[in-house]
Specification:
The complex is a heterodimer of chains A (367) and B (83).
Chain A: E1 14-19, H1 28-43, E2 49-52, E3 60-65, E4 81-85, E5 96-99, E6 104-105, E7 111-112, H2 113-125, H3 151-161, E8 188-192, E9 195-200, E10 203-208, E11 211-218, H4 219-222, E12 232-236, E13 241-246, E14 249-254, E15 257-258, E16 264-265, E17 280-284, E18 289-294, E19 297-302, E20 307-308, E21 314-315, H5 316-319, E22 329-333, E23 336-341, E24 344-349, E25 354-360
Parallel strand pairs in A: 1-2, 1-3, 3-5, 6-7
Antiparallel strand pairs in A: 4-5, 8-9, 9-10, 10-11, 12-13, 13-14, 14-15, 14-16, 17-18, 18-19, 19-20, 19-21, 22-23, 23-24, 24-25
Helix pairs in contact in A: 1-2
Chain B: H1 10-27, E1 35-36, E2 39-40, H2 42-54, H3 65-71, E3 75-76
The chains are: A mainly beta (367), B mainly alpha (83).
């Protein structure tokens, strides 16, 4: 986390705010609720209190405006700059402005007002930007549900104001996974138009063949309607589709766009209702089959006929000698299957039916 | 390879101007000409590195794809460094 220079903060814990005008995108009551919830996020973990004024000058004056809106710090039209706020202080200090050229929402459909307000009010209380991708004070917008403050945010605001003397312990959201943690395990992995996506917790890494450094991205910032936890994923390049599995549901992506008509239930593939989760999935281009791994067994799905092959499920250990009996994630490259289980990666030759190399899971992440 | 003396293709120019505007707004890049793609000023390169360090990108000082992608993400208007 970071503070502003000279650790600017309010000299009193009882701060006033006023909503000067409202966006036409939402009901007035929705705006009131979003702002109150955003302030509560910070008062939950500090001794701060927020009193609403309906006229006159408050410490934090909240308004919506577009382009040049009176502070010589103009907005830029749709997207780009969403909002800004000033650090604690007299006059414009603490004031918080939202760009009216954005569309404000109370869900993931466009920019979620509660999330942006919680971030901006962090600035109005003295927090600057965090370099931690999972932190609320990270500069780039990302939609997420649940409690918005990470450990990093809580430590930062309490360094300014101390803890809430009578707060029930809030559970901050977990920080971003460290790609070079030797004990790193994967949730899922897939190809996507020549890139490789590796899913872990609420994030995915995007690996591009020509760029050595993987880019870590929040799942929700790319696909707000996909759950924060992906179990398995695979690409069917013939159909230019990526299928994402989470629990008993599956979503289809065409590039970075969600395909209409999804999510669907995984049992539509022909899996019995007893299957509640797919651990890993991988499409074998040479055979047109997609292998679905569940516990110690796997299924073979024929993409051309859209049916499950007969004689399945079969044992992973029997059919993939040398492999572990369970799989967390799998990808297929040029005749080799790469199986990931816990912090080990198995390079399995599909033709000679044996494990050729055993690597650390995160060697794929340039570690 | 494209000669750096030739006219800069328009998409390169757009990216360059976007980057200059971004670095000026968020990383306090001084006003004034900052060279151009292929011949960036020292200030420009230093600010690119500062932004790449902040976002844990590979610190190259170049306006590479990852860096440009990030500059195009919707974000907060408060600067990432300094006053």
């Amino acid at each position: 986390y970071n503070h502003f220079p000279r650790d600017l903060k309010w000299q009193t814990n009882d701060v006033t705010f006023r909503i000067v005008n409202y966006t036409p995108d939402l009901e007035k009551s929705d705006v009131d609720r979003a702002i109150r919830r955003a302030l509560n996020v910070w008062s939950d973990v500090t001794p701060l209190t927020f009193k609403k004024l309906h006229k006159g000058i408050a410490d934090i004056m909240i308004s919506f405006g577009s382009r040049e809106h009176g502070d010589h710090n103009p907005f830029d039209g749709p997207d780009g700059l969403l909002a800004h706020a000033y650090p604690p202080g007299e006059g414009i200090g603490g004031d918080t402005h939202f760009d009216e050229d954005e569309h404000w929402s109370k869900d993931s459909s466009t920019y979620n007002l509660f999330i942006v307000a919680a971030h901006e009010l962090g600035h109005a209380l003295g927090m600057s930007h965090s370099t931690e991708p999972s932190a609320l004070m990270y500069p780039v917008y990302s939609y997420s549900t649940g409690y918005p403050l990470s450990e990093d945010d809580v430590e930062g605001i309490q360094a300014l104001y101390g803890p809430n003397p009578n707060s029930r312990k809030v559970k901050p959201k977990p920080d971003a996974p460290d790609k070079c943690d030797p004990m790193l395990t994967f949730d899922a992995a897939t190809e996507l138009r020549g890139e490789t996506l590796v899913f872990k917790d609420r994030f995915y890494w995007r690996l591009h063949p020509q760029i050595p450094e993987p880019e870590q991205v929040l799942i929700k910032s790319t696909w707000p309607s996909i759950p924060n936890k992906v179990d398995a994923a695979y690409e069917n390049p013939e159909k230019d589709l990526v299928i994402i599995f989470s629990g008993i549901k599956m979503w289809a992506l065409n590039g970075y766009n969600l395909v209409d008509g999804y999510p669907k239930y995984i049992h539509r593939l022909g899996l019995p209702k007893s299957i509640r989760k797919i651990d890993a999935a991988v499409h074998i281009g040479d055979t047109g089959k997609t292998l679905l791994f569940t516990d110690e067994e796997y299924w073979s799905y024929d993409e051309a006929t859209g049916t499950m092959d007969r004689g399945y499920p079969r044992s992973i250990e029997k059919d993939f000698p040398g492999m572990n009996d369970e799989v967390d994630a799998a990808v297929y490259h040029y005749g080799f299957l790469y199986f990931f289980h816990e912090h080990v990666q198995y390079e399995y030759s599909y033709n000679s039916r044996k494990v050729m190399r055993i690597l650390r899971t995160n060697s794929i992440l340039n570690c | 390879p494209r000669s750096s003396a030739g006219p800069v293709p328009s998409e390169d120019l757009d990216d360059w101007l976007l980057a200059e505007k971004y670095l000026r707004h968020f990383y306090d890049l001084p006003v004034g000409l900052q060279g151009r793609r292929g011949e960036p000023s020292g200030h420009f390169t230093a600010k690119i590195k500062e932004m790449q360090r902040f976002f844990k990108l590979k610190v190259t000082g170049n306006l590479d794809e990852n860096t440009l992608d990030l500059m195009k993400e919707p974000r907060c208007g408060v600067p990432d460094v300094g006053e």
